Amino acid sequence: MGALLILVGYFLGLAFDSAIAGLVIAVLVWVVLSLVAYFQGDSILLGMSRAKKIKPDDHPRLYNVVEEMKIASGLEKVPDIYIIDDPALNAFATGRDPNRASVAITSGLLQKLNRDELQGVMAHEISHVRNRDVLLMAMCSVLLGTIVILAYYGSRFLFLGGTGSRRSSSSKGGGQGQIIILVVALVFIILAPIFAQLIYFAISRKREYLADASSALYTRYPEGLASALEKLAASPEQLKSANQATAPMYIINPFRKKGLKASDLTSTHPPVSERIRILRAMAGASFNNYDQAYRHVHGGKGVIAVASLAAETIPIATVKLEGEAGELDEVQRARETSDVMWRLSNYRTIACDCGARLRVPPNFKEPQIKCPHCGRTHQV
Amino acid sequence: MIPGIIIGVVVVVVGIFLWANYNGLVRLRNQVKNAWAQIDVQLKRRYDLIPNLVETVKGYMKHERETLEAVTKARNLAQQASSAGAGERAKAEGELSSALSRLLAVVERYPDLKANQNFLALQEELTSTENKISFSRQFYNDSVLKYNNQTHMVPSNIVASMFGFKAGEFFEVTLAAEREAPKVSFTQ
């Protein structure tokens, strides 16, 4: 998108016969686009991924889990909850402030996770909302874009003596001082956008660690998120609707490739295996415990800001039993999720006595329907 | 002239100090109040769910009269204790939680019941309400801790004692049994 803008700015600059105008216009357009992304980003993102909003009755378990995490995090309002009909495993949060936030989860992930894992994932997403990461990453991307544009125009001034204007460079032979300045400027112009990009990714990764730590703190149960991440990492499917700008908001990087090097500098997310190891190395559920676990796994300095390290150790909730009373297995969850998806597309489900389930499309007008399996007729 | 300026600066600085600390304390106190209201909402919700649950389960569990009665009794006691102080209340709610977890553990012996849609929906509601109670208690205690720290630490403790901000009371679970995971045994 940045490159496109530069092109637009360039041609506008040609039209106005001034490079400055082009520069100003490019920056202005970039700011406007970023503002649109900030104010309308959630509806655009949710619309693009064809996410369907659910009510509490549609999927009580999902709604309850989100509400539990809303309570644990102290948010004032339950975020809107969306399901994306996609077999890929992912989830994201969006919305510019905590009172106008949404969380979304793919149907694939929803049927894969048990209650504790779902809780861990939702706690991660809610902490993105709570920590205002959407706002932070929007700001960062505005700065990043501005730096890229400025560097580009800077290089044009340097080499061509101004874009658009057809004047030839008048001053000739500046002496050594000027050459040094030129070289320094050149290096600066080449490196600035690269560093800006790297810093952007570094901030994004740091916010992921913070969201993981918050998830452990809210649920008091780091193992839930750890085992959810394990399931996420094992899936090769990629989310179709993700794009580079929204990537920091997902639970794991939607563009991850197999066999990527662990400490990749150009990734919005830390490597999943490392996140799992940190979560499993936690001796308690506080930020302090996460920080210690991080230093243990990763070495070097901690990852959580010192100011929020006040709380000592908080005990982890007792280990929950797998297959606890009332826990559905994966087949039941898959059936439940597909029921919800059909219902959200306005299909009606009729359970026949022979065990077959009839999905009646919304434009079906007949008063009766015959079961194709056993031949009984049902009222629609 | 110069002493006047100095006095003025001191007044402004003290004013800003009081203003910022007072507002911070009020914000935290409101958060504590709010968190307490949250616990209340969830506890009330549990009182409402239990009669439904007992009604649904009764038909299936002929031999568990005692367990069911214990739940009903604990619920009524807890409801009566809801006007009492945090300590007494926490005890009554703890009893109710452990009575409920005994009931849900017994359910494992009744496959018919586990297939009942109505019961499954109720069970999800109950599990979630239990979780919401413990999460709201967790948030309440975190808020109380933050607020109490603020009322005791220098310099905000000066403002706290000036305007009468009292330390809050924690909502502790008195029963050890409630913290343990329910033990499910499949042998009869």
Q: Could you walk me through the main structural features you see in this protein, from its secondary elements to its overall organization?
A:
The complex is a heterodimer of chains A (380) and B (188). Chain A has 380 residues and is an alpha+beta fold. Chain A is built from 11 helices and 8 strands. Helices cover 53% and strands 8% of the residues of chain A. Chain A has a 4-stranded mixed sheet, sandwiched between helices. In chain A, strands 5-6 form a two-stranded antiparallel sheet. In chain A, strands 7-8 form a two-stranded antiparallel sheet. The radius of gyration of chain A is 26 Å and the shape is globular. The C terminus of chain B is likely disordered. The longest helix of chain B is centred in the N-terminal third of the chain and has 57 residues. Helices cover 78% and strands 0% of the residues of chain B. Chain B is mainly α and 188 residues long. Chains A and B meet through α3 of A and α1 and α5 of B.
